[in-house]
Design a protein that fits this description.
Helix content is about 50%, strand content about 20%. The protein is of the alpha/beta class. It has one domain: 2-enoyl-CoA Hydratase, Chain A, domain 1. The protein has a six-stranded mixed sheet with strand order 1-2-4-7-9-11, sandwiched between helices. The protein has a three-stranded parallel sheet with strand order 5-8-10, with helices on one face. Strand 1 and strand 2 form a beta hairpin. It starts with a strand and ends with a helix.
């Protein structure tokens, strides 16, 4: 299948779904499309609640596109690439509507950042998480603020430093990333739909005010995440990272 980002609306719920055949990794064009879809849903009066999900049944998101990482040859190109994740996270943060994360499988790197930027996240027991950036010589700089906001500094630093290990969905639930963990994708989908449609019966203005309250203290993230993207863009040019990326070819 070809990569895509699409939106559907059902019972006042906006479903935003992304897919890439390489384990739902996110190259720049998909990140840009995802940002635009979230922004458009933010102002669409037909949508009261948003569900963020990915296609397929094995991996929610494998993070950055290795092919694009390998092609980065200057700091500005690196900054622009990593800003793709920053733009998605900031669009989710600024969206006046609740965003529910539907995490059906493993999620790595930038994918953990997307899950962390949702307002309420539900997963299957197969949805283990890993921050692998340090293993590549980079570090989870752009997604770090979102992950830390959900897991706390202790939890975020644990998985950021233990960059080779997957942490279970149960661990992620205990730390506050996942609100509920289900035995199967079918049970997850039922629960996500029921929860989202129930939210649609509430006052949209009240939910918008609540979201503003929940995200208080993140007003500097436009500048912060851009600065973090510059750091990642510089580090991705290191010999260490170049050699690491070659080893995955």
């Amino acid at each position: 299948m070809e990569p895509y980002v699409k939106q559907t609306i059902k019972n006042e719920v906006g479903y935003i779904e992304f897919f890439h055949p390489a384990h739902n990794s996110l190259p720049s064009n998909l990140l840009a499309e995802l940002t635009n879809k979230i922004k458009h849903a933010s102002t669409n009066d037909e949508i009261k609640v948003i569900i963020l999900q990915s296609g397929g049944d094995r991996t929610f998101c494998a993070g950055a596109s290795f092919e694009e990482l390998q092609a980065i040859n200057d700091e500005e190109t690196g900054r622009v690439f990593f800003s793709g994740f920053a733009n998605v996270i900031n669009a989710m943060r600024k969206c006046p509507k609740f965003i529910i994360g539907r995490i059906q499988g493993k999620t790595v790197g930038g994918g953990v950042g997307l899950a962390s930027a949702t307002d309420y996240c539900m997963a299957t027991k197969y949805a283990s998480i890993k921050l692998s950036e340090l293993n590549l010589g980079i570090g989870p700089f752009v997604v770090g603020p979102a992950v830390q906001r959900k897991l706390g500094l202790s939890g975020m630093s644990q998985i950021a430093m233990d960059a080779n290990s997957f942490y279970s969905a149960e661990w992620a639930q205990q730390k506050g990333l996942f609100s509920q963990v289900y035995e199967s994708t079918e049970l997850l989908d039922e629960a996500v739909q029921e929860f989202a449609e129930n939210l649609c019966t509430y006052n949209p203005k009240a939910m918008s005010e609540m979201k503003t309250m929940f995200w208080r203290g993140t007003e500097d993230w436009d500048a912060l995440l851009n600065q973090r993207a510059k750091t990642s863009g510089r580090l991705v040019l290191s010999n260490f990272t170049k050699q690491k990326l070659k080893s995955f070819q």
